[in-house]
Amino acid sequence: MSAQQIANIELPTQHGASPVLDGAHLQPVSFFPAGTEIYAQGEKAGPLYQVEFGAVRVYRLLADGRRQISAFHMAGETFGFEADAMHHFFAEAINATGVRVLRIAPAADMSRQLLPLALKGMIRAQEHLLVLGRQNALERVAAFLVDMAERQGGLRQVDLPMSRMDIGDYLGLTIETVSRVFTRLKDKGVIRLLGLRSLEILKRDVLQDMGE
Amino acid sequence: MSAQQIANIELPTQHGASPVLDGAHLQPVSFFPAGTEIYAQGEKAGPLYQVEFGAVRVYRLLADGRRQISAFHMAGETFGFEADAMHHFFAEAINATGVRVLRIAPAADMSRQLLPLALKGMIRAQEHLLVLGRQNALERVAAFLVDMAERQGGLRQVDLPMSRMDIGDYLGLTIETVSRVFTRLKDKGVIRLLGLRSLEILKRDVLQDMGE
DNA sequence: CGTGGTGTTGATTACTTTCAAGATGTGTGG
DNA sequence: CCACACATCTTGAAAGTAATCAACACCACG
Q1: pTM score, two decimals?
Q2: What is the model's pLDDT at position B43?
Q3: B74 to chain A nearest CA, in Å?
Q4: How many CA atoms within 13 Å lie on the side-chain side of B10?
C-alpha cells in the first residue's frame, strides 16, 4: 500500500447496491488523492479493492515508458485481480478516490464469490482486445463512450473522470488522435462537448453502430 | 458442443503434468478435426476444456467479419472461462485436436481450484492488451515468438501450429505484415525459417529485447 | 502433375503518429 | 472576483507505419 494514502475514513457506500462480497461493508475505506498510487507492479498482492467514489486506472508500462491502461474502475466496481502472488500492474487514483480495501481470507466459500468477479474482468479484457486489435480510432472512441455511458446508467450526459492522455493510453491512441475524433464526432452532431470532462450523447444509435 | 465432433476417445495425457483439476483424468476426451468448432458465441456455457494434443484458437468477431483471436491454447492448457452463462467467444480446433471436457460441479471447493486458472487467463489477456495497444508490428511478432518458445519449453526450435492468418488475427496485423516481419527477422539473422510452420530462434536475446 | 490454398513480395494508399504552435481551462493568489 | 500561469486540449503540417491491392511463388493435396 502506498505511503501516499492519507487517511482512513468511514462513510456510507455511495452506490446503493448491496456489497459485492459478504462482509465488505465491514472493511475500512481509504482515501487516495488524485494521481496517487494504490498498488504498484511487483508489490505483493493480496487484498482486493472496491471503489466507493472517484475513479481508478490500472495500467502496465513498457521499459521506455509507453503505457497501456487495461481498465478504468468506477464507483461500485471491484479490482485488484491483477495479481498472482505479485502484482503485474499499477493502480492509481485518477481523481480523489475512496477505496474499500477487502482483505480476503482465501477460504473456499470466498473463492466462490470471487470467481464471477474475476471472470467478468477477464471477459472485459478480452473484449478490449478486439477493440485494440481490430478497430480504428473512430470505432475505439465510440466504443469507449458507449461503455462509459452504460456504466453511468445509460444517461445522455457522460462524465469522463480521466484526461485525454488516460483515454489515449486506454485505447492505444495518442492524445491528438483522441482529440481529433472527439472533434469529428462533435462536427457530425453525434456528441456535444459540455466541458473537457463532460459531454452529451446526441445520437446514441450512431455511436453504438460505430463501436460495432 | 459442435456437431462436428467426431468421436470420443480415451488415451493417456500427452503432457506429464498432474491434472490441473481434481478428477480431470476421469473425464472423456473428444477429438476435433482441424477447423472445427468447439463452442460458439451465444452457446450456453458450462464446461471447461483441457487441451490434450493439438491447438485451439479462441476468438471474437465484429459484424463485418474482422476477427480478433484472444488466445491460443496448447497441450496441457485449460480454457473455456470466456463464459458468463453465455459464451462471448468462439473456440475452434486449429489442427486435429484432443480436448478433455471438464463438466465441473460448481461446488465451493471447485471454485478454489478454478480461481487461479481464471486469474492466469486474465493476466495473460491484460498483457496482450499492452502488446496490441502499444507495440509495433516487429515488437508484436517478437513477443509472440518468445511466448510460443517459452510455452514449448524454451527450445530453440519453435513449432507454429497456426497459419499466418491466425497469427495476424492474434496480433492485430494483416498476414502481409506478419510475413514481412518474419522476413525481416530472417534477414537480420534472428530466426531461421525451417518450414512454414516451424522456425529456429538464432538470437533469443535480440528477440526478447524486441518484445520488451 | 495439375490445382487450390497459403505465403511472400512489391507498389500504392490510408491512417495514425509525431512535431509544432496556439487555444482553452483550471487553479491559485492577489 | 479577477488575473495570471500552468497544464491540458485542440488544430495543423509532415512523416512514418501498416493496410490494401495485386502479382507471383510455394506447398500440399488429390
Answers
A1: 0.90
A2: 67
A3: 18
A4: 5
Query: Under a CB-based contact definition with an 8 Å cutoff, are residues B140 and B171 in contact?
Result: yes
C-alpha cell at B50: 483441457
- Per-residue cell: B58: 479462441
Distance CA B117, CA A84 (A): 10
Considering only residues 104-163 of chain A, list those whose CB is below 7 Å from strand D. Answer: 163
Cα distance between residue A75 and residue A52, in whole Å: 5
Which of A92-96, B40-44, B142-146 is predicted with the least confidence, judged by mean pLDDT?
B40-44
CA distance to partner chain B, nearest, from residue A76 (Å)? 20
Enter the C-alpha cell of residue A87.
502484482
**CATH code linked to domain A7-131:** 2.60.120.10
Q: How many helices, marked H, and strands, marked E, lie in chain A? A: 5, 14
Chain B residues with beta carbon closer than 8 angstroms to that of A82: 122-123, 126
DSSP symbol at A44: B
Cα–Cα distance measured from residue A188 to residue A141, given in angstroms and rounded to the nearest whole number = 14
CATH classification number, A135-210, choose in 3.60.15.10, 3.20.20.80, 1.10.10.10, 3.90.550.10: 1.10.10.10
Give the percent of chain B with pLDDT over 90.
68
Cross-strand pairs, B137: none
